Amino acid sequence: MPKRFVVTASEFSELSRFTAGVELAEALTAAAQRLHETPSPHGTLRTAARLAVHLLPGAEHAGISVIERDSRRTLVWTDEVVRLADSLNTGREDHPYWSRLWTAPVASIEDSASGDGELGLSGLGLRSVLSLRLRADRRRITVLTAYARKPRAFDDSATRIGRLFTAHVSIALESATVREQLTEAMRTRDLIGQATGILMERLDTDAAEAFDSLVRISQRENVKLRELARRIVDAGRGDA
């Protein structure tokens, strides 16, 4: 299960709010640079949530969640009110508002206090909502949601900027994911290499035979190769 992160304002105290006088291209470039500076996918999500508040006109709070066919969970949020808003709707991933995002890249609520009071947000003082898809596949979608305390806070300009921004977030998130996967693959390779070396010494055999033994044990005990290698390496350290 993905980790959850709270993004506090103090972490971005040096970040100036983008004003109307700043060219959109410059603002998006600055945002993209911040996103690509993050070392991990979770870091990218943390940064994206905070940047959304500074970049999207009208946004006061933001969060990023993953929606699956039978669940929805929030990964990062900028303020406690976002966490509270999401807790109101736990188990309501089939709500028409969230369901809309399976087929459309954007969903919005102009005023949560009107109509049927979608999602029960007005009680928290959240009147406007703008959700934008970051990622989508057959099983899940990742969504950035911005909130505002006044009604009709998100106009066409906010939606347009939001879609441009989420395009940058998606690219940065994919890049961070690939980097993390490559780093993990290198760590796994090194770990398996260490375990193979230990087995070579214990079994008095060559690298190929030691690796084959590692694979056979992994299959017999139904343990992932990386986990088995870790156990062997840890045991070897204990014997040292």
Tell me what the structure shows.
This protein is of the alpha+beta class and 240 residues long. The chain contains seven helices and six strands, in the order βααββααβββααα. It has helices at 24-36, 41-55, 80-88, 96-99, 156-203, 207-221, 225-239, and strands at 5-6, 61-68, 71-77, 106-109, 128-136, 140-148. It has a six-stranded mixed sheet with strand order 1-3-2-6-5-4, with helices on both faces. The longest helix is centred in the last third of the chain and has 48 residues, at 156-203. The protein starts with a strand and ends with a helix. The relative contact order is 0.12.
Using DSSP, what is the number of strands? Answer: 6
Residue ranges: pLDDT <50 for 5 or more in a row?
1-16
Indicate the proportion of strand residues.
Answer: 15-25%
Rg estimate, integer Å: 23 Å
Biggest sheet record: 6 strands, mixed
Helix content: 40-55%
Strand numbers in spatial order across the main sheet: 1-3-2-6-5-4
Helix and strand pattern: EHHEEHHEEEHHH
**What is the number of helical segments per DSSP (H or I, 4+ residues)?**
7
Oligomer: single chain
Mean pLDDT: 84
Distance between the termini: 35 Å
The chain-level structural class is: alpha+beta
Overall form: elongated
